Amino acid sequence: MSDCLFCKIAAGEIPAAIVHQDEAVVAFKDINAQAPLHVLIIPRRHIATLNDLSPDDDGLVGSMLRTAAALAQQHGYHERGYRTVFNTNREAGQTVFHIHLHLLAGRWLTWPPG
Ligand code: 5GP
Ligand code: ZN
């Protein structure tokens, strides 16, 4: 998608503080961090929302989640705790329509979420 912000970050066309990348996913710091650790994990391939996933994407989504767990461990939050969130569409607060897994850690995270 030529006009997608996160496709451009994945392609290196827009700078981001990248903390991990491999052939399938890219992880970078959120520009408006909501916790001491706030990373977004995205697939390189454009997928607009979770509603657009197919069974072929099961491995990709698994990689996104395992990347989040590995990053939480690298930053020392795997025992204390961390939160992983996908926002989907308007009422859930999705603003960038290229799926991204939020990884949040480093402070007490309340429940229910806002
Ligand atoms: P959403 O609200 O769609 O679940 O999350 C989008 C996230 O992308 C927000 O937390 C927002 O701060 C982050 N974001 C928006 N634009 C940029 C950007 O240009 N660079 C980075 N690193 N994060 C961004
Ligand atoms: Zn995209």
N- to C-terminal distance? 31 Å
SS-based class: alpha+beta
Largest sheet: 5 strands, antiparallel
* Share of helix, binned: 10-25%
Portion of residues in beta strands equals 15-25%
Distinct small-molecule ligands in the complex = guanosine-5'-monophosphate, zinc ion
Per the principal axes of the C-alpha atoms, what is the gross shape?
globular
With strands numbered from the N-terminus, the spatial order across the biggest sheet is 1-2-3-5-4
Task: Note the total helix count.
Answer: 2
Instruction: Please tally the β strands and state the result.
Output: 5
Rounded to the nearest angstrom, the radius of gyration is 14 Å
The H/E string reads HEEEHEE
Point out poorly predicted stretches: none
How would you state the average pLDDT, rounded?
97
